[in-house]
């Protein structure tokens, strides 16, 4: 075989040192090479990825005792999992913790183990491939040296769980390399790739698998020298910390208020107060982390982490869809097409207007420039997205997604043409946001092939996709649709056909109530503030501009026709704005002015009241309870997940049902009754509150 091929193949095989024997350990394998170097391979039993559990750490502690006694010439720490080094702590052990002292005690044990690793009397080197995250990164920071395999990625995602690093990572990172860079990693949760990590000083070398043994010898026997960065010491001095901490707090406040997300502020305080002394910061990290762990924010964000995992599992397996044909190159259809192409599918995009396809292709190119890695990847992704003026792609497609405006007759006329040309085994999916499938299927010869695949805007950022069934749908087609959604890295939510399904039915009262507040002469900035202080990523007025006032009006009218007084009447002035073409972000003007896709807005002069917030958010919880009672969805956890991943509902609240549970179902029902007496029947509490727990 060609030597070049052999060398290429070597980079796909992990260099794990000498062949280990079975050994006495469940999660590790320990062996020595001819140079007396100990190779410790982490291979957590029964798991596809390594995580740090209490049991794993205890076994690691036992191995450290052996190494302290036997004193090999050096220690190499590696993962035997192809998936990567260590994905972090075992988050299952974070759930339901409520006692600060117990959390701090557990942390103390972890600190003791990593301190032993750091202080062991022999050279230690971590060899890292794939992802090295959270607690895994804290482990490698306790080693003397770090060697990254090309393509490895490093990060501290704890902030996304309402926490900061807790196994000594805050102190070790800020004293190993530029503390501003280290703090940025911890405050954002973003990862850095191997070459960037080397430039920062986080790792000491970047190599390929076939060179690992030589790189290990260089590190163990002193031939690999790490760079000492003077700037690290200077930036940890008191005056620099004070100045930088002040700036960090301002940036954090622009993203999330402290009362909702305390972790960034706790981390900044920790570094500002103790960053000048590594030992002090290590000690102070434990109580800081423990206090965060028992907050409702952290516990709810941990719950959201598991909700995402549970919703991923709903996909049910690997997708067989290879060719998607999208009809309608507007904002939604074009973005659905580009996302599918980004995920490796062949996509044909049809529209009667060449300008619409041209605009969609331009948006796709802009998206791929941001999210595809490298020019070759951008080119290949764009090649998979094929303009299709004649609609020929419908004949070969596995899945056809219709994404035209919300007009029943228009959709049905398109279906009539499609049924003549689409393959018998192809699936016809609608991206309708509000029209029940029972109405859409009425003109179809084969209604069992129709189902709903409803994306949310922006497609590239919102993870939820509703998969909508009806009583005549082919169950195999439905399962295929669920797998398709999982296959394009989205979270499928099975819902039964009904007006607005789940998310839009819950979201529309939120948007319409905001418009009624405008009718009452409440300032739009105050209305948005009421939602943003609750924790929404943006207020309902800005959201209406984002969605498009024409779409809000169409969906609002559609749902009011089906659901009656539970949906407020759209004001006449909204119809006037739509008629004038003031549609929001897409036209540059709606309730706000928009420039280059960015909203132009100031700050509220009159602050929102708690009643305003209740008027906006409690109807969402009310609708979610109604959808559970009606059987549109069957799991309260996935309802919460849907609202978080489909609308951005305040994640630290854990979802509208979890919020109601924490506030108290009776309290919420009573608050709705008070609002109903004051503002009308649209606030009437649903009958489902009587049994909701």
CATH architecture of the largest domain: Alpha-Beta Complex
Number of helices: 28
Tell me the span between the first and last alpha carbons: 66 Å
Query: Which topology of the largest domain does CATH recognise?
Result: 2-enoyl-CoA Hydratase, Chain A, domain 1
Shape descriptor reads globular
Instruction: State the name of the first-level CATH class of the largest domain.
Output: Alpha Beta
Q: What number of structural domains do the residues give?
A: 3
Side by side, the strands of the main sheet go: 13-12-11-14-15-16-17-18
The stretches of 5 or more residues where confidence is low (pLDDT under 50) are 1-9
Helical residue percent band:
40-55%
Radius of gyration: 28 Å
Strand content: 5-15%
Total strand segments: 20
The averaged pLDDT comes out at 94
* Structural category: alpha/beta
Q: What name goes with the CATH superfamily of the largest domain?
A: 2-enoyl-CoA Hydratase, Chain A, domain 1
Note the main sheet. Answer: 8 strands, mixed
Family: In the central section; belongs to the 3-hydroxyacyl-CoA dehydrogenase family.
Protein name: Fatty acid oxidation complex subunit alpha
EC number: 1.1.1.35, 4.2.1.17, 5.1.2.3
Pfam families: 3HCDH (PF00725), 3HCDH_N (PF02737), ECH_1 (PF00378)
Care to describe what's here?
- It is a single chain.
- It is globular and about 80 Å long.
- The chain folds into 3 domains: 3-294, 2-enoyl-CoA Hydratase, Chain A, domain 1, CATH 3.90.226.10; 316-497, NAD(P)-binding Rossmann-like Domain (Rossmann fold, 3-Layer(aba) Sandwich); 504-690, N-(1-d-carboxylethyl)-l-norvaline Dehydrogenase, domain 2 (Orthogonal Bundle), CATH 1.10.1040.
- Helix content is 49%, strand content 12%.
- It has 693 residues and is an alpha/beta fold.
- Helix 11 (263-274) packs antiparallel against helix 12 (278-293) and helix 21 packs across helix 25.
- Strand 14, helix 17 and strand 15 (427-430) form a beta-alpha-beta unit.
- Residues 1-9 have low confidence and may be disordered.
